[in-house]
Amino acid sequence: MNHNPMRPITTPISLKWSARTDRGKVRPNNEDAFLGLQFSAREIHRLGKTGEASMENMDFAFAVSDGMGGAMAGEHASQIAVEKITTLLPRSFQQAAIGLETGFEDVLMELFDQIHRALRYVGGSYEECSGMETTLSLCWFTPGWAYFGHIGDSRIYHLPARENGIRQITHDDTHVGWLFRNGKISEREARTHPRRNALQKALGADNQFVEPQVGAVAYQTGDTFLLCTDGLVEGLYDSHLTELLRPLESTAAIANLAARLVEKSLEKGGRDNTTALVIQVV
């Protein structure tokens, strides 16, 4: 794999993760989906909702998706997205491992394009899936670097161990998100804007072109990453996320940080499906 030659080289580290999804208090079904994957050129393992494992010989991928569409179409769309990652990302890794030099940007762009094509095909083939689309936020962990791909209004956050605040590393693909990034409105105004959920980009449906945001973030031991759907941040501001991800209680009490986040969000809102996936570098 043609990884960044300047990436930090450290002793083998481990990732600790937790995931939780809830349909919320209003929606009849859950159109969110999440994925944890451990893989190498030879092996693929689906991960459970909580766990810890070494990165010595394996890469990791984590993703959340938020589906949309009539009837059960949204639920199918988000599931198709995460299932495609399971087959497509390790395949790209295998090709790179046998000498096809591929940068992470190419791998992720191709992955998003293939998922988009699959959703459009299913949406065009079955009437009950017509118009299906989904957001997708994906983090691929290799030693020292987290590569990410993103489209829609789910989010990826990075909370560095050596800094105070949390940083949203993905852009919300909404006009309201653009207004906030450019300082036209405040975080509070963005969260209450009537058009905050109107997507400009997604996978599937009538979207002709897929232009995901891709990038890389260097990380160190003690850093935390959060992947979440928009339902989670309906009730939690960035300051709340920082507070909840840096708890002072015993480790036993916070074995599932994702569940803690979802429960707190549901207390304050709960109108939408709510999903959190927390990855800690230990």
Describe this structure in words.
By secondary structure, the protein is an alpha+beta fold. Helices cover 30% and strands 28% of the residues. The strands form two sheets. Strands 2, 3, 5, 6, 7, 8, 11 and 12 form an eight-stranded antiparallel β-sheet that branches.
Features:
282 residues, alpha+beta, Phosphatase 2c, domain 1, 8-stranded antiparallel beta sheet, 6-stranded antiparallel beta sheet, 7 helices, 30% helix, disordered N terminus
CATH architecture: 4-Layer Sandwich
Principal-axes geometry comes out as globular
According to CATH, the homologous superfamily is PPM-type phosphatase domain
The DSSP helix count reads: 7
Element-by-element helix/strand order: EEEEEHHEEEEEHHEEEHHHE
What is the beta-strand fraction?
Answer: 25-35%
Structural class, by secondary structure, is alpha+beta
Number of DSSP-assigned strands: 14
Cα distance spanning the termini: 24 Å
Give the helix/strand layout.
Layout: E1 14-22, E2 32-39, E3 44-46, E4 50-54, E5 59-68, H1 73-97, H2 104-125, E6 133-134, E7 136-142, E8 145-151, E9 155-159, E10 167-168, H3 175-181, H4 187-192, E11 203-204, E12 213-218, E13 224-228, H5 230-235, H6 238-245, H7 257-268, E14 274-281
Helix pairs in contact: 1-2
Summed up, what is this model?
Helix content is 30%, strand content 28%.
